[in-house]
Write a structure and sequence with these properties.
The complex is a heterodimer of chains A (447) and B (152). Chain A has 447 residues and is an alpha+beta fold. Helices cover 34% and strands 25% of the residues of chain A. Chain A has three domains: 83 residues, Rossmann fold; 61 residues, 2-Layer Sandwich (Dna Ligase, domain 1), CATH 3.30.1490; 239 residues, D-amino Acid Aminotransferase, Chain A, domain 1 (2-Layer Sandwich), CATH 3.30.470.20. Chain A has an eight-stranded antiparallel beta sheet with strand order 13-12-9-10-11-14-19-17, with helices on both faces. Chain A is globular and about 65 Å long. Chain B has two domains: 44 residues, no CATH class; 92 residues, RNA polymerase II/Efflux pump adaptor protein, barrel-sandwich hybrid domain (OB fold (Dihydrolipoamide Acetyltransferase, E2P), Beta Barrel), CATH 2.40.50. Chain B is 9% helix and 34% strand. Chain B has one helix and ten strands. The chains are: A alpha+beta (447), B mainly beta (152).
Chain lengths: 447, 152
């Protein structure tokens, strides 16, 4: 086991990692920006090193500062958390060169699965279903031919980048020429690369992701799925496990295919494969996240496992012994609500001083948070304050438990999206378990 | 502590007088160890090598109690990097500056070693070194106070 782990992250995930380290008897180093000098995990860590001013580019993304901090504290491993450098293969490579273990997959595995094109190749090779798509489109006529083959509606996407740029939904041949031209223009401005391709467009998709885990000794496990359909502008708001849309049979099938892909590409550590589910309940591979995810707690609640601890133990070379998860069954149902510092109606971020903070508790309730009463939420980072996780024997009871928990959550001094969560839990689609990625749009009446 | 032969001689005499068998002292990166044998009073010339760095960054929350800048024109030089702080260009060279040194803008005050690279930290203004906060050979974090300069 490692002697000392440097936590290259902040907020709730940094505290999460610290907790796992503590329980494993590993010493901790918290690196932080000036804005986080009084953060909870900084105060709890065995050592702390200020690595830069508030901007992430000068602190949490500052590779030399982080490596230097590892050197002066003699840390033998770095846990990157999620976001920041967690999916940066170059950072993982540098850690290796400096004799520091990067807690995550190898740089090669990160590159293979992190790149959209190679990930899709891997997926196809191992029989993971893919949305029908085309290669780069040469002309509007070519686009129309491909769209006919795939079947409308289709979405034009830029090869050079994402984030909504160079994307156009096309529902008929008539719409194609204009859509093709404007998508290319936008892609050129956005990424200096006008290439677009097209893909089947699913109107009301559900977002389903599978948790995979592998150690360095050939052990590979799939730990079930999570549903994360409740999103706003591609940011997840509520997640749950298991998915109301999954059947045991489908779960089994996916598990076999995913396990093979993980094993044969030599992937190790935690990883999550994201899928889209269409109205016919067919799954299509989207991409893989080669790190621990924000919503990992819902999987922990229904499996009873400590995923971060497993991740650290695997990175340390331990031969992990997990029960055979093939005939997988979950214990109960778990829901997670992401509590953000934002206005519940306008979604404007709301940094500032938290004057009162009393999170919920009680049976089957877990709160993962790095904030406290008296903490000043800085404007420089994402707005996540806390994750509230409710676990109960059934989905209906989990929803009731979460509603109860949100009712007793006291926050003053800043605004939060607790009111949005309450509205979501009251929605009929959510209650019935038929939500899609368009649900929040409908409820808030805006995109 | 610089190795002054007269001081060393006085030290040996003292050790002999008090019949001290072994003596060890560490200061500013230099470790001196003397083991008195039956006849030979000095051992371990290798003790003159600067001690290996055992850096433990002080938790940010437990910062050393600092004197606030007194009234007048003072400026604090803070570390722009995470690394190890050295007061001289090499272990046996004299320090770049001491308390009382007069410095000009752009003059090298110290070295911060980060990832095997030596970075020279320069004074931003002319003045006199009023205080030296950081310890030679110890690690420093971003923003940590290194020197206080009284502006010229």
């Amino acid at each position: 086991m490692f002697k000392k782990i440097l936590i290259a992250n902040r907020g709730e995930i940094a505290l999460r990692i610290l907790r796992a380290c503590r329980e494993l008897g590993v010493k901790t180093v918290a690196v932080h920006s000036e804005a986080d000098a009084r953060a909870l995990h900084v105060r709890f860590a065995d050592e702390a090193v200020c690595i830069g001013p508030p901007p992430a580019s000068k602190s949490y993304l500052n590779v030399p500062a982080i490596i230097s901090a590892a050197e002066i504290t003699a840390a033998d491993a770095i846990h990157p958390g999620y976001g920041f450098l967690s999916e940066n293969a170059e950072f993982a490579r540098i850690c290796g060169k400096c004799g520091i273990t990067f807690i995550g997959p190898t740089p090669e595995a990160m590159r293979a699965w992190g790149d959209k094109v190679t990930a899709r190749k891997n997926a196809a090779k191992f029989g993971l279903p893919l949305l029908a798509g085309s290669a780069v489109l040469e002309s509007a006529e070519h686009a129309i031919r491909e769209a006919k083959r795939i079947g409308y509606p289709v979405i034009l996407k830029a090869s050079g980048g994402g984030g909504g740029r160079g994307m156009r939904i096309v529902r008929s041949d008539a719409e194609m020429p204009d859509a093709f031209a404007s998508a290319r223009r936008e892609a050129e401005t956005g990424f200096k690369n006008p290439d677009v391709y097209c893909e089947k467009f699913v109107e009301r998709p559900r977002h389903i992701e599978f948790q995979a885990f592998a150690d360095k000794h050939g052990g590979v496990w799939t730990l079930g799925e999570r549903e994360c359909s409740l999103q706003r502008r591609h940011q997840k708001v509520i997640e749950e496990a298991p998915s109301p849309a999954m059947t045991a049979k489908k779960r089994q099938e996916m598990a076999e295919v995913i396990r093979k892909a993980i094993r044969e590409t030599g992937y190790t550590s935690l990883g999550t494969l994201e899928f889209l589910m269409d109205e016919k309940e067919e799954l299509y591979f989207l991409e893989m996240n080669t790190r621990v995810q924000v919503e990992h707690p819902v999987t922990e609640m229904v499996t009873g496992l400590d995923l971060v601890s497993l991740q650290i133990r695997a990175a340390a070379g331990e031969n992990i012994d997990l029960p055979d998860t093939r005939p997988w069954s979950f214990r109960g149902h778990a829901i997670e609500c992401r509590i953000n510092a934002e206005d519940p109606k306008t979604f404007a971020p709301w940094p500032g001083l938290i004057t009162e903070w009393h999170p919920p508790g009680g049976t089957g309730l877990r709160v993962d948070s790095g904030v406290y009463g008296g903490w000043r939420v800085p404007p420089d980072y994402d707005s996540l304050l806390a994750k509230v996780i409710a676990h109960a024997p059934t989905r209906k009871e989990a929803i009731a438990r979460m509603r109860r928990a949100l009712d007793e959550f006291i926050v003053a001094g800043i605004r939060t999206n607790i009111a949005l969560h309450k509205a979501l839990l009251d929605d009929h689609e959510v209650a019935q378990g038929t939500m899609t990625t368009r649900t929040i749009e409908r409820i808030t009446g805006r995109g | 502590m610089s190795l002054d032969l007269d001081k060393l001689r006085a030290l040996f005499d003292l050790l002999a007088e008090k019949d001290v068998a072994e003596f060890e002292h560490e200061e500013e990166g230099i470790r001196l160890r003397i083991a008195r044998g039956a006849r030979a009073p000095i051992a371990a010339p290798a003790a003159l090598i600067p001690s290996p760095i055992h850096p433990v960054a002080t938790p940010a929350a437990a910062a050393l109690a600092e004197t606030p800048p007194p009234s007048g024109d003072f400026v604090d030089v803070t570390s722009p990097f995470v690394g190890s702080f050295y007061r001289s260009p090499s272990p046996d060279a004299p320090a770049f500056v001491d308390v009382g040194s007069v410095v000009r803008a752009g003059q090298t005050l110290c070295i911060i070693e980060a990832m095997k690279l030596m970075n020279e930290i320069e004074a931003e203004c002319a003045g006199t070194i009023a205080e030296i906060f950081a310890q030679n050979g110890k690690s420093v974090e971003y923003g940590q106070k290194l020197f206080r300069i009284k502006k010229a």
